[in-house]
Amino acid sequence: MNANPILLQKKYARVVELFAKEKGMTLEEALDIFYHSELYKLMSKGISDMHCMSDEYLVQELENELDAI
User: Fold this and answer.
1) pLDDT tier at 1, thresholds 50, 70, 90
2) H-helix or E-strand spanning residue 59
3) Three-class SS of residue 18?
4) What global pTM score does this model have?
5) DSSP state of 4
6) Residue 19 C-alpha from the chain's centroid
7) Cβ-count burial of 5 within 10 angstroms (0-12 exposed, 13-18 middle, 19+ buried)?
8) Which of helix, strand or coil describes residue 26?
9) What pLDDT does 47 receive?
10) Is 4 within 8 Å of 49 (Cβ atoms)?
11) H helix or E strand, kind and range, residue 28
């Protein structure tokens, strides 16, 4: 299932903002991490309906991905 592109962009913004806040980093740093993540790839391609998950869940997934590196 593909999300509306505008709504998807808003979802990205909320996830990046929450991620930056939780990690104590700038929005630019968080945005760079997000756009190079597997999570972004899954969301942008509509795989597993990741875009339907809560912002908090997606931030946790991003944190888990970052910790695994």
Assistant:
1) low
2) helix 55-67
3) helix
4) 0.91
5) P
6) 8
7) exposed
8) coil
9) 81
10) no
11) helix 27-35
